[in-house]
Amino acid sequence: MADVPPGLVWERAAPPDDPGPGPWIEIAYGEGYAEGDPEAPVYLRETTAPETVVTTNRRKWEAFVLGVQAGEFDHFVEGA
User: Fold this and answer.
1) 12-48: buried (b, 16+ CB within 10 Å) or exposed (e) per residue?
2) Could you tell me which residues belong to the region Disordered (predicted)?
3) List of residues 6+ apart from 45 with CB closer than 8 A
4) Confidence label for 2 from pLDDT (cuts 50, 70 and 90)
5) Which residue(s) pair with 55 in the sheet?
6) Rounded (5°) CA angle 57-60-64
């Protein structure tokens, strides 16, 4: 597991009107993200296991988000 800097601001990927505990994915952006650094770290965790953090970078995260928006991963949830 990567070193997670203290003081990250975690953003919960949940419907705004859902107060429930989830489980939800939470995202935090590391140093350099706001400045547009493509290698800036992006941290992901699940609300039910916040001690387990996955790290990627801005370039890969944005490619993933574009893929989700384009429906590239819809086959994973067919019939769900």
Assistant:
1) eebeeeeeeeeeeebebbbeebeeeeeebbbbbbebe
2) 1-22
3) 10, 25, 26, 51, 52, 53, 54
4) low
5) 43
6) 130
- Which sequence spans correspond to the domains of the chain? 11-76
- E strands, the chain, in order: 11-13, 25-29, 41-46, 49-57
| Count of Cβ atoms closer than 10 Å to residue 53 Cβ | 18
pLDDT tens by residue, 10-47: 999 888 888 777 889 999 999 999 999 999 999 999 99
